[in-house]
Amino acid sequence: MPRIVADLGNSRLKWALLDEAGVPGPTVALPLDDPAAWAVVYDGWHRNIPGLSTWAVSSVNPPLARRLEEFLDERKPAEVRWIRTAAEVPVPKDVEGAETGGSDRALAVLGASKLLGTGRPILVVMCGTAITVERLSAAGVWQGGAIAMGLGLCARALHHFTAQLPLVTPTLDSPSWGRSTEPSLEAGVFWGTVGAVRELLKRQEPDLEGPPLVVWTGGDAFLLAPAVEGPAARVVPDLVLQGLVHAAFPSEP
To answer: Is 104 considered catalytic here?
Structure first.
């Protein structure tokens, strides 16, 4: 039976079709508010795979989750397994408020734990609408982390809440300073975010059980990871979806 995993976030909807071994295929990123685009991908996949599909969906966006639920109800897959909170994710936890915490954070932690194993602490950096730094002990226990503003959100906030600052799109080539407003803004948004993440990572280390492994994920990971750690940074774009596979299909090949 075909299996599909979906991650419904605050910026994008991501789907992946699992192969027979349960490994996610290429991720398809879809707009949040365009069921017609969802239908194109859904129909295209189901023309080429036999039988009804089983879905596993992680959501941190309740209004859009209802819309996706209606979309799937119309198409009647064999089953839809929803994971909406961190409490539902089978990873050892030493955190508070898991019943209301985001499932995406916990799934990224689970994915990192399965990918890298135990024995050394792990820091998971998620670079999406928000940036989070998640802590995993050497024993594989999720200890919580830190949440900061993401690159795009920072740029949009400066544009929206001021009268004259333009909207910029920072990149790895952003200057370190500027002679006019736009490059100055790019410099502050990009390198300020890089500095914030670097400081958050540094502040985790004193009470960890040794040098941590660091893994990056999320839409801006390919921008921020090399700026913070250099070209050797470990980026796993589909880490949340990998965690979702382990959470939703734990005993299925």
So the answer is: yes
